[in-house]
Specification:
Blueprint: H1 7-10, E1 16-24, H2 38-54, E2 62-70, H3 76-85, E3 92-99, H4 117-129, E4 138-145, H5 156-167, E5 174-178, H6 183-189, E6 201-204, E7 220-222, H7 228-241, E8 245-251, H8 255-268, E9 274-280, H9 284-297, E10 301-305, H10 309-322, E11 330-334, H11 338-342, H12 351-358, E12 362-364, H13 383-399, E13 411-413, E14 419-421, H14 425-428, H15 436-443, H16 445-454, H17 459-468, H18 474-482, H19 488-505, H20 509-519, H21 523-535, H22 573-581, H23 588-594, H24 599-608, H25 613-626, H26 633-641, H27 648-662
Parallel strand pairs: 1-2, 3-4, 3-5, 5-6, 6-7, 8-9, 8-10, 10-11, 11-12
Antiparallel strand pairs: 4-13, 13-14
Helix pairs in contact: 4-13, 7-8, 9-10, 10-12, 15-21, 16-19, 17-18, 18-19, 20-21, 22-25, 26-27
Main location: membrane
GO biological process, one term: gamma-aminobutyric acid signaling pathway
Biased composition (Polar residues): 553-564
C-alpha cells in the first residue's frame, strides 16, 4: 500500500529561491506591442509555478518565484525601458582606497604612503564636477589603511569595509578597489571580487607577474606594467652584449622577486644562455653563501631582484670587501633607485664604500609620470597647476586629526571634498580613545627612530636608562644592546615599539622618554614632542606627583611589570594552550609573527595542520622555543600587547596570573 506523506511535510518551507522573469506581452495601443493571447500565457505560467512548488520531486529544497513584467512581443527597446523604469536608480558609487599609511607597525606601509591619497581625492572631485564622465552619479572614496606589502595580507581596513558592505547590501555601489600595490594584498582582495554580496572590480597598482593570470584575476585592471617588462629589458641587454653566462640573484619568500625570477627563467629556458640561480634570505649566512657561489661559478654578470634595501646594502658592502664589483663584475638591479640605497643608514660598511660598490652598476626602473609643465592634462590644467593643487591637498591631509583611527575602518570623501566619518567607523572604532601622549608617540614614531639611527651609539645608553625607569623590560634592553649586525633603525624601532606598548596604558611614561631623549642630546626632538603633545591636549611637563594622565588609571590592574622575575621564565606548553590558544584561537598567525616566525613557516603550519587552530598554535610555540627570540613570558606578553595582535587585556590577565602563582 502506498503511504502519502502528510500534507504539512509536502508544504514544508523551501530552503532556496529561484526567480523567473516573465515578460508578458500585454495588449495596449502600441503597434506590435502584444499578442491577444498574452494574458493566457501568464495564466499558464502561474499554474505551472504552483505545481512545481507543491511537488517534492521536481525542485526539492527550492521555491520558484515568478516576477511579472509587461513588454512588447518583438520590440526589445521597449522591454528594456520598461524594466529599467521598474528598477531603483543607482546614483552613488564608491571606490575603496587602500592607503599604505606608515605607522608604528612593522611592514605597515611606506613613509610616503599618505602621499598617494591626495591624487585620489582630486580625481574624485574632478569626476563629480564634470558632467561628461559619470552623469547622474556621485563618486565617493572610502579610505582605509592597509599594509603595503607586509606580512598581514588581509588589511584590517579592507576586512572592516567588506564586512560593512556585505551587511549593508552595497553590491550595487562598490565599483573598485585601488591601492593594491603588492600581489600579497591583491590576493587577499581577489576572492571578494565577483561575490554576490559585494561586486568589486579591482584596480591594482601591483606589478607582480602572478597577476597576469586572467583566469584567477578576472576583474583585475593593471594600472602599472607587469614586472615582466624588466625581464624583457634584461633579455634585450643580454642579447645586445652577447652575454652567455649570467647569475640570477633574488630574495626568497617574496612573491614579487620570486615570480619575477620565475618569469625570467621561463624565457631563459628557451635560449642557450647559461644561468645560475641563487636565492637569498635576510641573513649574513645566506648573503655570504651567495657571494661564495658567484665566485665559484665565475659568473661576472649578476642580475639581482632584491626587495629589501637592508639586504641590498649588506650584499653590496660584502661584495665591495671581496672585490666583486666593477670592473670585474657587473651588477644589474631591478625596481630600486640609487638614492633609496644610499639613504639607508649603513651598518655593514661606510657610505663611501657602498657608493664605490654601486659605481657602474645598472638600475632598471620605469617612470610613468610626466613632469612637463607645458602638457595639458585631461582636466584642462597643466602639470604645474595640478602639482600645486596636489600639494595643497596633501597639506590639508596632514593637518587632519584622523590618523590615529585609520585602522578602525576608514573615512569617506563627500561630493564637495569634505572629510567625514565613514558609517563603518562606529562599529569598528577602537575600544577607548587614546591619550594625547599615546597619539603623539604614534604619530612621531618614525621621527624618533630616524633621529636615533643617525646617532647609533646613543641607542644602547638610552635603552639602559629606559629599562632603569621601568619603561622597557630587561629582555628588550638585552635585545637592543647585545645584538650585533642589525641596522640602527631596526634597533631603534624595536626599542620605541616597546616604549609604545608601555605608554598606551601608562601615558606618563611618555614624559620620561622625552626627558631621557633630552639627556642624551636630542634636545630639538624632545622639545618638538613636548609641543606636539601639549597641542594635542597633553600637559607640557611631567607631573611632580608622578601620576599618569589619560583615560586609563595607573593601577596595578592595567599594567604589566615586565621586569618581574616570574615573567623572565619560560612558559609551559600546558599554560600556553590554556591561557593563550584557548582564549584567542584565531590569532595564532598574528602572534606567530610577533614571536619571530617567518611567513613561509606559518604557511607551512597552516597547510600541515589542516587549519585546526589548536594544532597550529602548538607548532607556533615549538618553533618559537627553537628560534632566536627569547622563550619567556615577557616575549609572549609583548607579542600579545602589540598592535598586530591587540590583546593587551589578555596579556595583563596572564601576567597577573603568573605573578600570583609565584608569590
Amino acid at each position: 500500500m502506498l503511504l502519502l506523506p502528510p500534507l504539512a511535510a509536502r508544504k514544508e518551507e523551501k530552503k532556496g529561491n529561484i526567480n523567473l522573469l516573465a515578460l508578458v506581452p500585454w495588449p495596449d495601443d502600441r503597434p506590435h506591442a502584444d499578442w491577444d493571447a498574452g494574458p493566457d500565457l501568464l495564466a499558464g505560467a502561474r499554474v505551472a509555478i504552483k505545481e512545481i512548488n507543491n511537488s517534492t520531486d521536481i525542485l526539492p529544497d527550492y521555491r520558484l518565484n515568478l516576477i511579472e513584467s509587461a513588454h512588447e512581443a518583438c520590440g526589445l527597446p521597449g522591454a528594456i525601458q520598461f524594466s529599467a523604469a521598474k528598477t531603483d536608480a543607482i546614483t552613488q558609487l564608491s571606490v575603496l582606497v587602500l592607503v599604505p599609511y606608515h605607522d608604528f607597525n612593522p611592514n605597515s606601509g611606506w613613509s610616503n604612503g599618505i602621499e598617494l591619497l591626495p591624487a585620489a581625492r582630486i580625481a574624485a572631485r574632478e569626476i563629480n564636477n564634470r558632467a561628461d564622465i559619470l552623469p547622474g552619479y556621485n563618486l565617493s572614496l572610502v579610505e582605509a589603511s592597509s599594509d603595503a606589502c607586509g606580512c598581514i595580507t588581509a588589511p584590517i581596513g579592507l576586512s572592516n569595509f567588506v564586512r560593512y558592505a556585505v551587511n549593508n547590501k552595497m553590491s550595487s555601489q562598490v565599483i573598485a578597489v585601488t591601492g593594491l600595490v603588492c600581489s600579497t594584498v591583491t590576493e587577499a582582495v581577489s576572492p571578494i571580487a565577483g561575490r554576490l554580496e559585494v561586486d568589486i572590480i579591482q584596480l591594482s597598482l601591483s606589478i607582480s607577474p602572478l597577476l597576469r593570470d586572467t583566469g584567477k584575476y578576472k576583474r583585475l585592471w593593471h594600472l602599472l606594467p607587469s614586472s615582466t617588462i624588466f625581464v624583457n629589458t634584461t633579455i634585450s641587454l643580454i642579447k645586445h652584449f652577447s652575454w652567455n653566462k649570467i647569475t640570477l640573484l633574488y630574495n626568497e619568500a617574496n612573491v614579487l622577486t620570486e615570480s619575477t625570477t620565475d618569469a625570467f627563467i621561463d624565457i631563459l629556458s628557451n635560449t642557450t644562455i647559461q644561468h645560475e640561480i641563487i636565492g637569498i634570505r635576510s641573513s649574513r649566512i645566506f648573503i655570504h653563501k651567495a657571494l661564495d657561489l658567484i665566485e665559484a661559478e665565475s659568473n661576472r654578470i649578476i642580475f639581482a631582484s632584491i626587495s629589501s634595501l637592508d639586504d641590498l646594502s649588506h650584499l653590496m658592502c660584502e661584495a665591495f670587501s671581496r672585490g666583486l664589483i666593477w670592473p670585474c663584475y657587473a651588477w644589474i638591479f631591478q625596481l630600486l633607485t640609487y638614492n633609496e640605497v644610499l639613504l639607508q643608514e649603513q651598518s655593514f660598511c661606510t657610505q663611501g664604500s657602498l657608493i664605490k660598490a654601486l659605481n657602474m652598476s645598472l638600475i632598471l626602473n620605469y617612470r610613468l609620470d610626466n613632469n612637463n609643465d607645458n602638457d595639458v592634462l585631461i582636466s584642462g590644467r597643466t602639470y604645474g597647476q595640478f602639482r600645486k593643487e596636489y600639494l595643497d591637498e596633501l597639506q590639508k591631509i596632514k593637518l587632519e586629526d584622523f590618523v590615529q583611527d585609520y585602522l578602525s575602518g576608514g573615512y569617506v570623501i563627500s561630493d564637495n571634498g569634505n572629510l567625514y566619518s565613514n558609517p563603518i567607523e562606529p562599529k569598528f572604532k577602537m575600544a577607548s580613545k587614546k591619550s594625547p601622549e599615546y597619539r603623539t608617540l604614534r604619530e612621531h614614531f618614525h621621527d624618533i627612530c630616524d633621529a636615533l639611527s643617525q646617532v647609533p651609539n646613543s641607542i644602547s645608553p638610552l635603552a639602559n636608562d629606559l629599562c632603569a625607569a621601568s619603561i622597557i623590560s630587561t629582555t628588550t634592553r638585552t635585545a637592543v644592546t647585545a645584538i650585533r649586525g642589525v641596522a640602527p633603525y631596526d634597533l631603534a624601532s624595536q626599542l620605541i615599539s616597546a616604549v609604545h606598548v608601555t605608554v598606551e596604558y601608562s601615558p606618563n611614561k611618555f614624559y620620561t622618554l622625552v626627558e631621557k631623549l633630552n639627556v642624551h642630546g636630542f634636545n630639538e626632538l624632545a622639545q618638538m614632542l613636548y609641543e606636539k603633545c601639549e597641542a594635542s591636549g597633553g600637559r607640557a611637563a611631567p607631573s611632580a606627583s608622578g601620576e599618569d594622565v589619560g583615560e586609563t588609571p595607573p593601577t596595578s590592574n592595567n599594567t604589566i611589570d615586565f621586569n618581574h622575575p616570574s615573567l623572565q621564565t619560560g612558559p609551559s606548553f600546558r599554560d600556553l594552550s590554556n591561557l593563550v590558544a584557548a582564549r584567542i584561537p584565531n590569532k595564532w598567525r598574528d602572534l606567530g609573527l610577533q614571536l619571530g616566525l617567518r611567513v613561509s613557516e606559518l604557511d607551512g603550519i597552516y597547510d600541515r595542520r589542516n587549519r585546526v587552530p589548536s594544532h597550529c598554535y602548538m607548532d607556533v610555540f615549538e618553533l618559537w622555543e627553537k628560534g632566536a627570540m627569547p622563550y619567556t613570558w615577557v616575549t609572549l606578553l609583548q607579542g600579545l600587547s602589540s598592535p598586530f595582535v591587540n590583546e593587551t587585556g589578555l596579556a595583563i590577565e596572564i601576567s597577573q596570573e603568573i605573578i600570583r602563582r609565584n608569590n
